């Protein structure tokens, strides 16, 4: 059930998460993420025309996940760059949310596609000063995939080794909450307990699973479909745990400093995001191919049909950040011991998004009472 206003107005203080080591996962030579290495003009369309507000570039972060389809397709097809004119996009790829939040705090990125739990953690840790959620992007696309020879039902999880992408990331919180609901105890920091939770890079999880060092993983797409293609079985689609099968898995955040200094640039990125989402939903097959091309450009290899096809079907693209489900995610983080009294009031600023939606003839989106006043 959504968090009550009483909970939201409690004294906001950080608990264990303030001391949790947020791993700065390096996917390349860059300090926080790997700068996307464009291999042709289609991957990195040229910035043409007038620079918005004279700004030379905007630094954008995202994951090489199908749950970040808006960023993948919008960058690949040039739909976001088109709205920015001569202001060039500088993209960086991340493995998981905590490292992207570190990059945002350090000024290494200005805007990012990211999951709900790192957004809550980052906003709370900064006492509401570092970021705003400005749009939705995706719902769903997360599964618990297991070795069917070792785990045949949800009652078989005790004593097993289950991976998540990073300590404190959205899937980590979801798994810890689910295990708690089943009466299985796990130490949040070490991952040890009735179930051993292994925090591992999404890129490494399939190999670990194949080697037998993991019994399963609670992961986003396309990692989930990679595990299935490698012999795994979907034991639980996270959609089944949410009302109407909808929950925020990816939203768009911005540095408050950048939003204040460059509102026109933020609005342009949001126009690109909204137009990308509309194009994806109207052209699913072409959009899937575009996302796969971007994954190839970022990682060096496209996904095979047995992975990209089911992964693509498992993700719903939306402009709505599904704000009420963010409240639920915050409750899960509290229960897992990652946060105490998370700060949510003012985490959203949907005014720029709603301005863009109005211009597109679309209805405004609600922030569930958690918007900036």
From TrEMBL:
Residues 1-31 form the signal peptide. InterPro entries: ABC_SsuA_sub-bd, NrtA/CpmA_ABC-bd_dom. It comes from the Bacteria. It is found in: Cell inner membrane; Periplasm. Keywords: Cell inner membrane, Cell membrane, Membrane, Signal, Transport. CDD domains: PBP2_NrtA_CpmA_like. PROSITE patterns: PROKAR_LIPOPROTEIN. This is ABC transporter substrate-binding protein. It comes from Streptomyces niveus (Streptomyces spheroides).
């Amino acid at each position: 059930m959504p968090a009550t206003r009483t909970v939201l107005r409690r004294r906001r203080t950080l608990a264990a998460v303030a001391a949790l080591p947020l791993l700065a996962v390096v996917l390349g030579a860059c300090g926080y993420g790997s700068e996307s290495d464009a291999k042709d003009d289609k991957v990195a369309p040229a910035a043409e025309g007038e620079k918005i507000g004279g700004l030379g570039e905007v630094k954008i972060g995202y994951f090489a996940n199908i749950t970040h389809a808006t960023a993948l397709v919008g960058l690949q097809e040039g739909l976001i760059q088109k709205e920015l004119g001569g202001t060039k996009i500088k993209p960086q790829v991340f493995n998981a949310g905590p490292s992207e939040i570190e990059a945002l705090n350090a000024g290494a990125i200005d805007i990012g596609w990211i999951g709900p739990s790192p957004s809550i953690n980052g906003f709370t840790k900064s006492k509401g000063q570092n970021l705003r959620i400005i749009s939705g992007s995706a719902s769903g696309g997360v599964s618990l995939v297991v070795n069917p020879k070792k785990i045949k039902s949800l009652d078989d999880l005790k004593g097993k080794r289950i991976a998540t992408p990073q300590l404190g990331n959205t899937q980590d919180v979801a798994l810890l909450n689910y295990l708690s609901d089943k009466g299985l105890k796990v130490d949040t920091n070490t991952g040890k307990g009735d179930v051993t939770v292994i925090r591992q890079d999404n890129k490494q999880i399939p190999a670990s699973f194949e080697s037998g060092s993991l019994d399963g993983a609670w992961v986003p797409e396309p990692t989930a479909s990679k595990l299935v293609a490698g012999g795994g079985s979907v034991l639980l689609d996270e959609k089944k745990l949410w009302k109407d099968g909808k929950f925020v898995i990816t939203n768009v955040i911005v540095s408050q400093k950048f939003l204040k200094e460059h509102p026109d640039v933020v609005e342009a990125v949001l126009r690109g995001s909204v137009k990308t989402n509309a194009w994806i939903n109207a052209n699913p097959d072409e959009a899937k191919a575009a996302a796969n091309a971007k994954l190839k450009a970022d990682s060096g290899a496209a996904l095979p049909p047995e992975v990209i096809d089911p992964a693509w079907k498992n993700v719903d693209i939306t402009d709505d950040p599904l704000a009420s489900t963010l409240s639920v995610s915050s409750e899960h983080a509290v229960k897992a011991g990652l946060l105490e009294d998370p700060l949510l009031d003012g985490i959203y600023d949907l005014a720029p998004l709603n301005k863009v939606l109005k211009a597109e003839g679309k209805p405004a989106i609600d922030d569930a009472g958690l918007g900036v006043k």
